TrEMBL record:
It comes from Komarekiella delphini-convector SJRDD-AB1. Signal peptide: none annotated. Pfam families: Pentapeptide. It comes from the Bacteria. This is Pentapeptide repeat-containing protein.
Length: 188
């Protein structure tokens, strides 16, 4: 009996990752269907999904796993991403106006050129994220972000309308107090 089990063990070890991946794909497909039908997907696994250019305006994605997802140029205006896992996500050029990102993990995220006007970034983990050329006018954000050396704020528009200078070439940051910037609308 033990000999038969040992013969099947290598086959089981080879098939297990395949079955797990198929199960994850099935769950991800169901989550996508739910998201399309309801505009909500609470605590779903959407990791690695390509939402590039997608219209997710006002969608409820609380506690959703979006690790490694591509949201480049996506419309996430007023989306609820509270407690979401956004590690290694691409949000380059995305419109996050009024989005709730509080308590989210935005570690190693690319937000280059993103519009985060009036968004909520309180208690969000932003380590090693790229906010260069992003718009943070009227965003709720902790002072820690502005002081953090691990966050790229090159030419970022701050909540008070000033633009960051420096940190583009690993130099210290300084604020350009005289350079006020008007709020801008992103084309949809």
């Amino acid at each position: 009996m033990m000999i038969n089990f040992l013969r099947l063990l290598p086959v089981t070890l080879v098939l297990t990752p395949t079955l797990v991946n198929q199960g994850n794909d099935f769950l991800r497909q169901n989550a996508m269907k739910q998201l399309q039908e309801t505009g909500r997907c609470f605590s779903c696994n959407l990791s690695g999904v390509n939402f590039s250019g997608a219209n997710l305006q006002g969608f409820d994605l609380r506690s959703t796993d979006l690790q490694g997802a591509n949201l480049k140029n996506a419309n996430l205006r007023y989306a609820n991403l509270q407690w979401a896992d956004l590690r290694n996500v691409n949000l380059q050029g995305a419109d996050l106006t009024g989005a709730n990102l509080s308590f989210s993990l935005l570690v190693n995220a690319n937000l280059q050129g993103a519009n985060l006007e009036a968004s909520n970034l309180k208690m969000t983990d932003l380590r090693n994220s790229n906010f260069s050329y992003a718009n943070l006018i009227k965003a709720s954000i902790s002072q820690d972000l502005l002081n953090s050396r691990s966050v790229n704020l090159c030419r970022t528009i701050l909540p008070n309308g000033t633009m960051m200078s420096g940190r583009c070439n690993n130099r210290p940051v300084r604020k350009l107090q005289s350079q006020r910037v008007q709020s801008f609308e992103t084309k949809l």
